[in-house]
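Dear colleagues,

For the upcoming journal club I promised to circulate an example of a predicted protein-ligand complex. I picked one with alpha-D-glucopyranose because it came up in last month's discussion. The inputs are reproduced below in full, followed by the predicted structure.
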Amino acid sequence: MTGAEERWYQTAVLYEVAVHSFLDTDGDGVGDIAGLTKRLEYIQWLGITTIWILPILPSPMRDGGYDVTDLTGVRGEYGSLDDVRELLVEARARGIRVITDFVVNHTSDQHPWFRSARQPGSDKRDWYVWSDTTDRYSDARVIFTDTHDSNWTWDETAGQFYWHRFFDHQPDLNFENPKVQEAVIDAIFFWLDLGFDGLRLDAVPYLFEEEGTNCENLPATHAFLKRIRSEVEARYPDAVLLAEANQWPEDLLPYFGQGDECHMAYHFPVMPRLFLALATGNTAPIIETLADLPEIPDGAQWAVFLRNHDELTLEMVTDSERAVLNGHYAPHPSMRKNIGIRRRLSPLLGGDRRQIELLNAVLMSLPGSPIIYYGDEIGMGDNVDLPDRDGLRTPMQWDATASAGWSTAPPDRFYQPVIDSPDYGPAEVNVADQRPDPNSLLNWMRNLIRVRPAEMGTAPLELIDTGDQGVLGYVRDEVTVFANFTEAVRSVSNTGGDVMAGHASVTPASVTLQPYGWVWLK
Ligand code: GLC
C-alpha cells in the first residue's frame, strides 16, 4: 500500500458459507436463505465483516451449485429473491457486507442455453465450444482428474463434441461470442442491482481457449475481466470482484491487472505451504512464498484461507511436496480427491488445538483478508464416505442434538447426513456448547478476530530471520509475529514488544514458544 485509503474488503474478515448447509428454517432438509438471515446475529457476534455465500443459483446440484441452470435466479429450496433482499438488508443493518459466488466459465448441461445449443440449427449453438474431433486444444490439462480424462464430451443430439474444463455436465460457455459476454455481464448486474457488495468470479482462468496454449490465463480472458471491472466500477464503484484463479504466483498477479481487473484474488500458493511447514516442522516453503510476495496494485487485496468447500488443492506445489502432504494429511486414499485432500481443518490437524490455533494465528496475520470456512470456527469434522467434496459440506452443528439443531426435517430428508463420528458429532462439536465456554475454540477464534488490527490486511510484511527454520517470524506494521511450527519448545531472539495475543515467555533477550506456540507482540 502506498498510503491510499483502505477499501472495505482490504480490512475484511470473511466467512464462507453454503446456504444449504447452514440452517433449515422451513423443515425441508435443505438450508435456506432465511436460515442464513436468522444466523446473522451469530456471524456478527463472531466478528465477521463480510459473508461470501456459495452459489444460490438454480441448479441440479451435481457440482454443489456450480452447475447452474439460470444465471439470474435463486434455487427454489433456498427461498426467493425477496429472501435474498431481506438477507442483504439485515446484513447491512449489522454492518456486514455480502458477496456471492457467480459461475462465469460454464453452465449446467440442463441450462436452457445448452439444451437449445445441442439442437441442430440452434442459434445458441455458438454459445458453447464445439468440435468435430477431440484434437482441438490438446495442450489444456484435465482438472477433475478423478472423474475425467478429456475436456471433450460427445453429444449425440448435436453430433459434435463440446468443451468442458470441469465435469462433463458443465459445458464451457464460448466467450468469443459477444452475446455470451453480454449475457454474463447482464447477469453480473442483476446481482449487483439486487444489492450484493460483490461477486466471487468462479474459475476465471479458463474463459477463453486458444490453440497451442494451455488455455489458461489467456490475454483475451484478462481483457474480458478488465471489461467487467470497468463496467462494474462505472455503476458500482464500491463493489468487489474476487477472482478464483488457482494458479502459480506469476500467473495469479495479472488478475489484479494494473488495479483495473479483479480487486481480490485468492492466494492459492501460500495455503498448502502452511500445511507443508506444519507437516515437516520447516517453515522454509512459507518464507520463500512470502519473500516472493509481489507488490500488488493500490486497492488490490489477497484473500487468504486455510480451508474451503473444495479439496485442499495441491496443484500449486511440486510433486515431492505433494507426496509429503498426501502422506501426512491424507494417509487413506478416500481422503484424496482430484489433486488434493478432501478434509476439514480440524481432522486434518488431528484435532490438535495447538496446531489449529497456530495456523489460524498465522492466517490472521498474513497480508490479505482472511476467510473462515463455516464450521471451522468450532472445529467441525468431515465425512470422507460421502461422494465428491460433499463430506466437507455437511450441516452446520448448532447444538448437541442428533440433528445438530440445523433442521426439523426427519434425518432421512437431510440433503446430507450430519457428521456422526464419535469425535466430531454434534454432541462433541456444536455452537451452543462453545459459545458460553470461554475456553472453547469458538471463543478463541472470536478473540483473535477482535484483537486483529485492521491494518493487518495491507501493512507491509517484513520477514525476520529467526535463525531457526522451525520458527516463522515477521513484522506487520506494529505487530511482530512468531510461530513455532515444531513439536518442541523453541527460543528465538526477542525483537521487542508486549504480548498482544498468543503465549510466549518473553524476556528482553528471547521469546520462548511452546510446541506449536505462537505470539503476536506489539
Ligand atoms: C470452482 C469451485 C468448485 C467447482 C468448480 C467447477 O473451482 O470452487 O467447487 O467444482 O469451480 O465449477
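Two points we might discuss: Residues 78 and 199 are 19 Å apart (CA to CA). The mean pLDDT is 97.

See you all on Thursday,
B. R.
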